[in-house]
Amino acid sequence: MKLALQLNVIDPKIGGVMIMGDRGTGKSTTIRAIADLLPEIEIVKDDPFNSHKSDLELMGNEVKMAIQNNKNLETELIKIPMVDLPLGATEDRVCGTIDIEKALTEGIKAFEPGLLAKANRGLLYVDEVNLLDDHLVDILLDSAASGWNTVEREGISIRHPARFVLVGSGNPEEGELRPQLLDRFGMHAEIRTVKDPVLRVKVVEERTSFDQTPMVWIENYEAEQQNLRDKIIAAQNLLPKVDMDYELRIKISEVCSQLDVDGLRGDIVTNRAAKAHAAYNGRDKVSIEDIQAIITLCLRHRLRKDPLESIDSGDKVGKIFNEVFEMEE
Fold it and tell me: In this predicted model, what pLDDT tens digit does every residue of 22-57 receive, in sequence order?
């Protein structure tokens, strides 16, 4: 789960993570904790879309116009945004809507940005995503895939950048997502309750320690947190230089073919995740070990053809991987 989240921060184009697991296994806690590892980003000051000052793909129309008119833009550094999407959110709250107050008081049509605008260049987290309305999940996945959100309201058409890492979590007992929606998540992690009593006691002790003296607990782990931050930033910088041999790309596609994965998303995501994993470990060349570490996360949720089937535990993916890559089990 932690690896999937970190790789998505290194390369948001992987397409997000779906985390399913038992109740009380720390899914939400881990996802919210990833926000502390995220580096700061530079945005145009007071811009509702967290616009980048030079990348056209990450800036709103107002910033583009200002740049074309050679205006000086003031910037500021902020923590990468982590936006929570509540289960009861409406489509208007998610996508944005017309500012009725301005329309009535000033007689102008103005756009009021939604959660997708706030999440641009950050993370959007949906707890219990399997209980969210399907049409809202569709909107989120479309925006995450294209990097843009288009709103058509009252004769106004607004298009703004919405490039974010989509993270969903849920309990499989409450129902699964449809296979078509599951396929749109880049990675799928499955969490099980820890059975080892020693490890369970350690988790309880750490939690108790945090509850009693949170600041002391945070200070104790600050050095480790900073090391992880530095590692993620170094990986982001190294990622464009990472290369993968043609033979390895062929074998990845052979695994997808033998598993009868629909479409090419599985191939694309596995390639991206393997490169991100190599960058995370400070290498500029992808190895078989990189692919082995991520292939189950990338493919296990793409094997379901029937909504009534359960998601593969990873054994099937692992078996085919060993056969294709000629690894000993």
Answer: 888 888 888 888 877 787 888 888 888 888 888 777
Let me know the angle formed at the C-alpha of 4 by 2 and 5, rounded to the nearest 5 degrees.
Answer: 65
Active-site residue, from 265, 272, 302, 304: 265
Residues of the chain with pLDDT under 70: 103, 109, 154, 304-313, 328-329
Tell me, what amino acid is at 201?
A: V
Does residue 265 carry a catalytic annotation? yes
What 3-state DSSP class applies to 73?
A: coil
Helices (H), the chain: 2-10, 27-33, 61-68, 91-95, 100-105, 115-118, 134-146, 179-182, 197-212, 214-238, 246-258, 265-280, 288-299, 315-324
CA dihedral 260, 264, 267, 269 (to 10 degrees): -120
Instruction: Tell me the C-alpha distance between 266 and 259, whole Å.
Output: 10
154 dihedral zone (left: phi>0; alpha: psi -120 to 50; beta)? left
299 phi, psi to nearest 5 deg: -115, -20
